[in-house]
Amino acid sequence: MTAVSTTPATPPATSTVAVLHSEWIKVRSLRGSFGSLLAVFVATLAITTLTFATIGQEEAGNGGDLLFEAFYALNFGQIAVLAFGATAVSSEYLNNALRVSLAAVPNRNLFYAAKTAVIGGCGLVVGLLTTFTAFLVGQAFMGPYTLGLGDPGALRACVGGGVYLALMALLAAGLTAVLRSAVAVLSILVPFLLIVSFVIGDVAGSVADFLPDRAGQQILHQHAEGSLGPWAGLAVTALWAAAALLAGWWAVRRRDA
C-alpha cells in the first residue's frame, strides 16, 4: 500500500499580475480613494476654468511667470492627490482589512510593492491627464497671453506636473503606512503645504528650496527660481517620496497586522 503524505502542500506563489489587479480593484471600489483620485482632475479643471475665465488675462498683464501661473489650480489638485494616496493605504487598517490582505498575499514585500505601484500609476495617469487638460483649457481664455505646448518649458511642465502629482500621492501613501491613519497624515501634510512651506520659505531662504512641494514645483516654472533647476527639483521631491515609501515598507514588514 502506498503511504499517503501528511505534509501540507506548499501554496502556489501569488502572481504579481493578480496582486496588482486586486489592488486596482481596491482603488476602484473604495469610494474614499476613487473619489479623491477623481477630485484631482475635477477640482483642478474647475478652478482653472473659473480663474482663467474671470481674471486670467488681468493677472497675466501684471507680469510674472505665465507658465507657472498656468498651473495655479494644481495647488488644490495636490491636496486631492494627497488624500488619494493616504486613503488608498489607510483602508487597509480599517476593520482588520490588512489581515485579510496578508492572508491572500503573505509576501509583504509583494503586497506593499503592488499597492504603491498602483497608487503611483493611478496618480501618474490622472496627473498627466489633469496637467495637460488644465493647461490647454486655461490657455483658451488667455487671448494675447496664450501659451502653447510648443512654447519653452510648456511640454516639460505638463509632463513634470503629472509626475509631481504622482510623487505626492506616493509620499502620502508611505507616511500613511507608518502612521496607519489618513487623518493623521493629511493633518500633517495639508497645513504643511498650505502654510508652513510658505512661512519657512520666507524665513529660511534657499533651504526651503528642498522642501518637497517647493522643489517639485520648479518643474512648472518657465524660468527656474531658487537653487534648483526643474528636473533637479523634481528629483528632490522623488527622494522625499522614496524616503516615505521606505519607512512605510519597514512598518509593513515589522509590525503586526
Give the low-confidence spans: 1-12
**Proportion of strand residues:** under 5%
Determine the structural class based on helices, strands and strand pairing: mainly alpha
Secondary structure tally: strands: 0
H/E element order: HHHHHHHHHH
Number of helices: 10
What percent of residues adopt helix (DSSP H or I)?
A: over 70%
Distance between the terminal alpha carbons, to the nearest Å? Answer: 45 Å
Shape field:
globular
Main sheet characteristics: none
- The gyration radius over C-alpha positions equals 21 Å
Chain-averaged pLDDT: 89
Q: Can you lay out the helices and strands and say which pair or pack?
A:
Elements: H1 16-29, H2 31-60, H3 66-70, H4 74-90, H5 97-104, H6 108-139, H7 154-179, H8 182-204, H9 212-216, H10 230-254
Question: In words, what does this structure look like?
Answer:
The chain has 257 residues and is mainly α. The chain is 72% helix and 0% strand. The chain has helices at 16-29, 31-60, 66-70, 74-90, 97-104, 108-139, 154-179, 182-204, 212-216, 230-254. Helix 2 runs parallel beside helix 6, helix 6 runs antiparallel to helix 7 and helix 6 (108-139) packs antiparallel against helix 10. The model is unreliable at 1-12 (pLDDT under 50).
Summarize the structure in short.
The chain is an all-alpha fold and 257 residues long.
Features of the shown structure:
single chain, 257 residues, mainly alpha, 10 helices, globular, disordered N terminus
